[in-house]
Amino acid sequence: MIRLLPALLLASAPALPAQATDQRVYQFEDLQLAIELPELEDLRSSPVSGDQLRGRWGGKLGAHQVLITLWSVPRQEWGLTDPVEVIDNIAFNARRSEGGEDFEFDQRSLLAGPFGTLPYAGFAVSSDWKGTEKIRLHYYLGGLAEERGYSLRVAVEPPPDEAVRERLMTFLSTGVRYSGPGEDPAWTDEEAEARWERDRPEELQGKLKIFRTEHYLIFTDSSSGKLFGKKMEECYDRIQQTYPFPEIEGRKLMPVFLFRTKEEYVDYYVKIAGNTKAAAAESKGHSYRDYYATYYDAPNDPVHVHEATHQIFSNRLGLSGGGSWFQEGVAEYMSTSHNERKAFAKGAAKRGGFTPFREFVEIPSLLGSAKGQKDVKGGSVAGKRYTQAASIIAFLRESDFGAEKFPDFLTAVGGAERGRKGVERAIQGVYGVGLEQLEAEWVAYWKKAR
Ligand SMILES: [Zn+2]
User: Fold this and answer.
1) pLDDT digits 0-9 by tens, 37-52
2) Which of 105, 111, 168, 242 could be a cystine partner for 124, CB 3.0 to 4.6 Å?
3) Mind giving me the DSSP string for 238-257?
4) Domains of the chain, with CATH numbers?
5) Average pLDDT over residues 305-321
6) What is the pTM of this model?
7) What is the CA(331)–ligand 1 centre distance, in A?
8) CA contacts within 13 A on the Cβ side of 95
9) How far does residue 371's CA lie from ligand 1's centre (Å)?
10) From ligand 1's centre to the CA of 326, what distance in Å?
């Protein structure tokens, strides 16, 4: 669940606090958090009231004005289970505040350190522009305490030079210290059992087996949990090689529900995701919220790497934007071969028969948009759209046009708001072209593909 937060991060210059102070260390007992401010000239603070804004300080670093704020919200109410989600919420709220529709982060990553119950923080940077001039920079750090999530935000104006940037990064990486109890990244057995009891279909009482791998927690009633865990790790490795992302210590294992039979899987899908029985029965696996659920059939089925990609993009990378074409594209690229993509894309590039990019990026669900539709030759429209999406990712990752900036493309489009406007702006920012030109490059690439 996401709630609106009063935004003080956009357009107009934030006023600096009025009261001079020389106190630099602050303790927040309910968060079990200590903050040591950087050495600022003319350090000021202002009293804060209310539940969410917890601290507000300002000062100068040479010619730069610096404003620091600390916010916190209850974890349970906001559904916060990972520091990445604190950062997601900042973008979500910024886009819904006045003048913030076009909000994007310039950069996102994780910082390792004693930031909360899990030993890392979400980190992001954004810019404020006045015409073509960058006038202000914002840094965001998001972490989890036991009961509450928090974000520490730093606004700098004008944007920092290298020396100021370094001092602020030192503050963000060393000025925050959490001293409360940690969470077990591997889940405690009680925690895992409680999750199973909450979510399992009724008929599976007392049948739980739990297997842990390096990145996954497998809940199962089948005898194949161990083997399946191995397969999931192989998927993880392939995904990480294709879309490189850093490993950071202490991340929570990702839950996988592996059912013995298809019937049990369908019951679970209907119970948790509220899908109809008929729709659930058409799938072999699905990822939703933090989990992946499937049933034991063929461990090498491409569905597993496809769904594992969805789970990693949302649960690990915080890249759940861009729209259905992007999400299905990165997943389907993992579960198809070059020849499968070429069989569609080469012909489509030569003779037409693909969905124009401007229309394609706006489709809310590639699957739902074409339910049951067949084209003139009797192929499924949804199937072609999946392959088109994969062929766009293949083109960007493998072509001279796209390869070098492919990692930037993933971050920018995966972090962009769904819809044509956000996607086009992100692509423009990375590749310097609009959607029509991107489509022309895609056509030229696939026409020549071997
Ligand atoms: Zn998918």
Assistant:
1) 999 999 999 888 778 9
2) 105
3) HHHHHS-----TTPPPEEEE
4) 19-178 (3.40.1000.10), 189-316 (3.40.30.160), 324-447 (no CATH)
5) 93
6) 0.88
7) 6
8) 19
9) 14
10) 10
